[in-house]
């Protein structure tokens, strides 16, 4: 498995700014993520130092070139899940590979995808969940639905098989974006994929059924939301990070409550602007460098004993 010092998830202003600091400090730095939303022909004229309007696309290209100049490795790949192994390192599973990192900076921006199920909130904690590794255990042997159209949903559905054989994916009316490899594994494991849209949920004490727009009712005691790509909130659930709504809580140094995990930019939810993302990215980079150095010292001390 590939191993890096610092894995940065997000190729927007926060992630690239972090990478400039970490790579320049000699840390093996990998940035995962693809073009952020702002990297289009949008005119940015409130970012420091540019008297001429610059497009979001050019600003991001410049940030990437600068991070790469200091040795950061930048790849367009999506992270599906993260866990911590018994050495305290983090392992990120992506669409293409698994990567081990001593520290992680979350710079995934904000996710605005909502499933559009009318009474979803009524069943949160009563069957509706956002985290297979947290709540999959409670669904042993029960029928469950995974709501999502892409590889993130496919990966969550496959993970649920360790608890129940009765798993169905519902794309929530969206066009399927599941790769060939995942489609093959879903078929192999007999996980059906419905392309309908769930409109409402029902059940007396907990979730019992989901009703599709077509009127069809599906038995489901669990419903896992996994729409679009995994977001910082999804990683927060599985890593036990403290959140405030959909945002990650950090201290002034961008440290989360889990040592080794830092967060910066829109996913922290302060002032959703490029300048703030860049500033928080720098702080997160600095804090991650300190963490990696401290971890190296601890590991050397252990070896010496
Ligand atoms: C159209 C538009 C115009 C804007 N105009 C301005 C402006 O004029 N001035 C201004 O200051 N701000 C502007 N903003 C806001 C600004 O773009 C954001 O505040 C800023 O981009 C936040 O940076 P970020 O790095 O936190 O997140 P983002 O820029 O959103 O980057 C998030 C990154 O995370 C990656 N990612 C997410 N999930 C995963 C995953 N599971 N695996 C791997 N990677 C993942 C994405 O691919 C992306 O690379 C604008 C935003 C938009 C959308």
TrEMBL record:
Q: What is its EC number?
A: 1.8.1.9
In its keyword annotation, does this UniProt entry include Lipid biosynthesis? no
Q: Could you tell me which InterPro entries the record lists for this protein?
A: FAD/NAD-bd_sf, FAD/NAD-binding_dom, Ferredoxin-NADP_redctase_2
TM helices/strands, residue ranges: none
| A matching Pfam family | Pyr_redox_2
Q: Show where the FAD/NAD(P)-binding domain sits.
A: 5-281
Gene3D superfamilies, per database record: FAD/NAD(P)-binding domain
GO MF annotations, alphabetized = thioredoxin-disulfide reductase (NADPH) activity
Could you confirm whether the keyword DNA-binding appears in this record? no
Which residues fall in a coiled-coil region? Answer: none
What PANTHER family does its record include? THIOREDOXIN REDUCTASE 1-RELATED-RELATED
Query: What is the recorded name of this protein?
Result: Thioredoxin-disulfide reductase
Query: What species does this protein belong to?
Result: Desulfomicrobium baculatum (strain DSM 4028 / VKM B-1378 / X) (Desulfovibrio baculatus)
């Amino acid at each position: 498995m590939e191993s890096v010092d610092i894995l940065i998830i997000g190729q927007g202003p926060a992630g690239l700014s972090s990478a400039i600091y970490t790579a320049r400090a000699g840390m093996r730095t990998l940035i995962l993520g693809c073009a952020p939303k702002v990297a289009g022909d949008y005119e940015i004229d409130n970012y420091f130092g540019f008297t001429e309007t610059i497009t979001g696309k050019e600003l991001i290209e410049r940030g990437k070139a600068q991070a790469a100049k200091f040795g950061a490795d930048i790849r367009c790949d999506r992270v599906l899940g993260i866990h911590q192994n018994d050495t305290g390192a983090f392992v990120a599973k992506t669409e293409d590979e698994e990567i081990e990192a001593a520290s992680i900076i979350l710079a995934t921006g904000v996710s605005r995808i909502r499933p559009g199920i009318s009474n979803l909130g009524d069943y949160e904690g009563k069957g509706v969940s956002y985290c297979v590794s947290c709540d999959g255990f409670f669904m042993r042997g029960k029928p469950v639905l995974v709501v999502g159209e892409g590889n993130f949903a496919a990966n969550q559905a496959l993970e649920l098989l360790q608890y129940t054989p009765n798993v169905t994916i519902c794309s929530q009316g969206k066009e399927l974006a599941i790769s060939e490899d995942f489609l093959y594994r879903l078929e192999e494991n007999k996980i059906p994929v419905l392309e309908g849209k769930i409109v409402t949920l029902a059940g007396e004490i907990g979730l019992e059924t989901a009703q599709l727009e077509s009127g069809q009712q599906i038995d489901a005691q669990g419903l896992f939301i996994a729409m679009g790509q995994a977001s910082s909130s999804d990683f927060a659930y599985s890593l036990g990070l403290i959140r405030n709504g959909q945002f990650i809580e950090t201290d002034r140094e961008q440290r989360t409550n889990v040592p080794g995990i830092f967060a910066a930019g829109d996913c922290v939810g302060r002032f959703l602007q490029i300048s703030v993302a860049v500033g928080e990215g720098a702080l997160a980079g600095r804090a991650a460098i300190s963490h990696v150095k401290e971890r190296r010292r601890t590991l050397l001390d252990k070896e010496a004993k």
